[in-house]
Design brief:
By secondary structure, the chain is an alpha/beta fold. 34% of the residues lie in helices and 17% in strands. Strands 1-7-4-2-3 form a five-stranded mixed β-sheet, sandwiched between helices. Strand 10 and strand 11 form a beta hairpin. The chain is globular, with a radius of gyration of 20 Å. It starts with a strand and ends with a strand.
């Protein structure tokens, strides 16, 4: 992976409110290709993770980005792990010799996604819209996600105070990263405006404000709107090339895939899936990294999920989401894990002035009790 870029993340109806998915994503494809010093005509396939658009939006993105009409396009839907899966599919295809250049990632435009209508069960019912709220039992089922995180917190003894403190610290880390311009070179402004260069997350809260929020599962739940991740619009894309093309381009710095793993968990354990996937990954690759991973990026659905991961692997503050996580940044569904890959690329490849790290992992949970994890090496 020799290039990786993303948009700023925006609230539904906010920053990207009028941008269709292809218009949101095509500029990111072109920016990543420019970073890689490649023309759009060099691309041999595009793979995109998405959960809300329907059809094959990867094809629309490819055409909007000016890729050749003969370029195959594939859309992947493993819910919130879709973007990471798309990148892994691309890296495996290149490793198998099926292509020299593939662009892959994830994109989600909740603001412009088509609405779905439920078919009436009988002649006396009227059609109703299927949204993203808990009563609709949609793919992103808020009640299922919250219930799983509540169960995880209960089982592991993760308190409300711990979750609120994690959320506050995540906001502060994101604020510091923004102030120190760590997202420069990562975020592609889609037009000349300051808001286009930074994530449209909420203002950093006070701990008392977080403590005053009511539980999502009353009366004594521990999850609130302040310590869970909010839906966002956004896109993140990467350029994957073969070793031959890498040498031809002068061997630029990048990320090499070392191993990946996918793992399922039982009903109601969805929140534990990224932990299970990373555990499975480390069983097969621990010898290769010779000790600690060094860096883990997770687009968490809740602070409880992030704390479970941090505690399981004894990660310190600089090893898990060092520039803030999804609780602060937001959660663009199928693009979430691709954003994590771009963040990892920034930390391991783009950030040459920081202490050198060699290995990093991305892990992601998906509704349905599935986790996907990948280990990368900076080369």
């Amino acid at each position: 992976m020799i290039a990786a870029r993303r948009t700023a993340l925006g609230r539904p109806g906010g920053l990207h409110r009028s941008r269709r998915l292809e218009h949101l994503t095509a500029p990111i494809v072109l920016a990543a290709l420019q970073d890689a010093q490649l023309d759009a005509r060099a691309v041999e396939e595009i793979i995109l993770g998405n959960t809300t658009a329907g059809g094959n939006p990867a094809r629309l993105v490819g055409l909007a980005a000016g890729l050749r009409e003969s370029v195959p396009a594939l859309t992947v839907d493993r819910q919130c792990a879709s973007g990471l899966d798309a990148i892994l599919f691309a890296m495996r295809a290149v490793a198998m010799g099926e292509a020299d250049v593939i662009v892959a990632g994830g994109a989600e435009s909740v603001s412009t996604a088509p609405w779905r209508v439920a078919k009436p069960k009988n002649l006396f019912q009227t059609p109703r819209f299927i949204g993203l709220d808990s009563d609709d039992h949609d793919a992103f089922d808020a009640s299922q996600t919250v219930a799983a995180s509540e169960e995880l917190a209960r089982r592991l003894g993760i308190t409300r105070d711990q979750q609120d403190n994690y959320a506050l610290h995540s906001f502060l880390k994101a604020e510091t990263a923004q102030a120190e311009r760590r997202f420069v070179g990562e975020i592609v402004p889609l037009k000349i405006a300051g808001a286009e260069a930074r994530d449209e997350h909420s203002v950093t809260p006070e701990i008392d404000d977080l403590a005053a929020l009511g539980p999502l599962v009353p009366p004594d739940g521990t999850l609130t709107s302040g310590n869970t991740s909010a839906l966002q619009d956004g896109a993140a894309m990467a350029v994957i090339v073969s070793e031959r093309k890498h040498r031809e381009l002068g061997a630029p710095r990048g990320l090499r895939l070392m191993a990946s793993a996918t793992e399922g968990v039982g009903p109601g354990e969805d929140a534990r899936a990224p932990v299970a996937a990373l555990q499975k990954l480390l069983k097969t690759s621990n010898g290769a990294i010779g000790g600690r991973i060094g860096l883990v990026e997770l687009s968490e659905a809740s602070a409880a999920q992030a704390l479970a991961l941090r505690n399981t692997f004894d990660l310190d503050d600089g090893e898990l989401n060092p520039d803030g996580g999804a609780v602060a940044r937001g959660y663009p569904l199928g693009a979430s894990s691709a954003v994590s890959v771009v963040r990892l690329f920034t930390r391991l490849v783009r950030a040459a002035t920081r202490p050198k790290q060699t290995f990093g992992a991305v892990t992601q949970g998906a509704v349905g009790g599935l986790g996907v994890a990948a280990l990368f090496e900076a080369v």
